[in-house]
Amino acid sequence: MALLAAVALALVAAVSARAANARGAAKNPYDVITRFAVANVQKPIYRQPDVHSRLVNKLSFYTTDTEALQTYRFIAAKRVHGVLWEHIDVPMRPNGQTGWVKRAWLGPVKTADTLIIVKRRLERLWVYRRGVMIFTSPVGVGNWASGWATPPGHFWIDQGFTSTDPFYGPWAFGTTDFSNDTQFPDGSIVGIHGTNAPWLIPGDPSHGCVRLQDPEILKLKPLVGIGTAVWIE
Q: What does 92-128 look like in DSSP terms, one character per residue?
C-alpha cells in the first residue's frame, strides 16, 4: 500500500512539474512575436477607430530619413460598423504614440520572432529568438550627463543598411526610437550600429544610438531584421 501511495505521489509530482514547466514556457517574457505591415495609402491615423476622432499623424510610405519603407506594428484589431480597424504603434515624436487605421490601408501582415534587449545601465545587449538567448554583446549607449540617454521603451527595427561612414562601422540598423538630441538631419532616430572608436565600448559615448564594436555588429546582422522588437530599459 505504501509503495502504491509513493508511486501515486510521484506521478502527481511529475504531472505537476510538467504543468508548471508548460505554464513557465507560456509566460516567457522574451518569447515575442511582432506583427507589422507597411502602408498601402497615405491616410490619416486617428486617435480612436472613428474618422471623426482626433488625428494622430498620417500613414507614411517611408521612414523619417527616407531610407526604407515605414513599418507599423499591430497592437489590436476592432470591427466598427462592419469595418475592421487596426490599433498600431506610430513611429514619431514623442515616442510611444499609437493610433487607429482601417485595415485596408495597410499591406499584408509580416512577422518577426526575435527580440533585442538593451539594458542601458549594464551597457549590454541581448538577442532572443522565441525566448531563447542567441547573442549578447557589450554596447555603448547615450550619454547620461549630457541629457542624451538612449530613450527607453518598446520599439522595433525598421531598416538595416551597409554603412559607408566609418563612424557607424560596417553596418547599421535603424529603430523606431527617437533620441533626445534633435540636431541630426535624419530625424535623430536611434540606430544600432558599429563604431570607429571601439575603446569607448562599453560606455555611454553616444547621442542616443546603441554602438557595438564592428565584429559584434557583423555577428548581430544575420540574427535580426525588419520587425525585430527592441526593448530599451
A: -SSTTEEEEEEGGGB---EEE-EEEEEETTTTEEEEE
